[in-house]
Write a structure and sequence with these properties.
It is a single chain. The chain contains 9 helices and 10 strands. By secondary structure, the chain is an alpha/beta fold. Bound molecules: adenosine monophosphate. The site of adenosine monophosphate has 17 residues, from helix 2 and helix 3. It is found in: Cytoplasm.
């Protein structure tokens, strides 16, 4: 099964993606996480991408598109859940073309909707686990609140170190990321509409203002 997930930063898209990929044994491909791995590992690609990411700008397509398409091709047998790509109409077209050329089907498009102001508040409270990117931690959500150990907050799943992403604490960077997401001319909403209108996949649209469990129950209930 191959799935595309859409939702503004802060909508819970990563958390829901982790739940879905677990249930169906899919590869979880997150463009942002691949970039962060490259930055951590000090690769050439990471060095090129860092400044864009810190500002909340998109990394140029000539770096991003091949990086994502290569990762998808490696997960062809297993099936994948793609998160963070496509983020623009151009990327949507490139993805559509690559899928057709490689004979990969797109089965579902999951769209999590959320108002911009709520999305912003949610972004600022999330924390990253040093051990596993799929361990959800958020200081404002009871269900995924980090736990306290020796006077500091650690990952609620594994006790790992937590950090906040620099681009999550910078209001200008958050604003830019949301400008890109909510842009329905050439941005991510245009990509969402492109796939909705293509009729190539079943579309599941859910209200992201509900709790994590409610949202996942709705998604899993429709994914059969
Ligand atoms: P995310 O973890 O999805 O919030 O992504 C973090 C950052 O990585 C974004 O703000 C962009 O700078 C970069 N990025 C992730 N996915 C893409 C993409 N599809 N196209 C361009 N840049 C991206």
């Amino acid at each position: 099964m191959n799935i595309l997930t859409f939702g503004p930063n802060g909508s819970g898209k990563g958390t829901q993606g982790a739940i879905v990929k677990e249930k169906y044994g899919l590869a979880h491909i997150e463009s942002g996480a691949i970039f962060r791995e490259h930055i951590k590992g000090g690769t050439e690609l990471g060095k090129k991408a860092k400044a864009y990411i810190d500002r909340g700008d998109l990394v140029p397509d000539e770096i991003t598109v091949p990086m994502v398409l290569e990762t998808l091709a490696k997960s062809k047998e297993k099936g994948w859940l793609l998160d963070g790509f496509p983020r623009s109409l151009e990327q949507a077209k490139a993805l559509d073309k690559a899928l057709t050329e490689s004979g990969m089907a797109l089965d579902y498009v999951i769209e999590i909707t959320l108002e911009r102001q709520i999305a912003k508040e949610r972004i600022m409270g999330r924390r990253l686990c040093a051990n596993d990117n799929n361990h959800p931690n958020h200081i404002a959500f009871e269900a995924i609140k980090p736990v306290e150990k020796d006077g500091r907050l650690v990952c609620r799943v594994c006790g790992g170190e937590l950090s906040a992403r620099a681009d999550d604490q910078d209001e200008a960077a958050i604003g830019k990321r949301h400008d890109i997401y909510y842009d329905d001319k050439t941005g991510t909403m245009a990509a969402v509409n492109y796939f909705k209108q293509s009729g190539k996949a079943k579309v599941i649209s859910v209200d992201g203002s509900k709790g994590i469990k409610e949202v996942s129950a709705e998604i899993l209930g429709k994914l059969v």
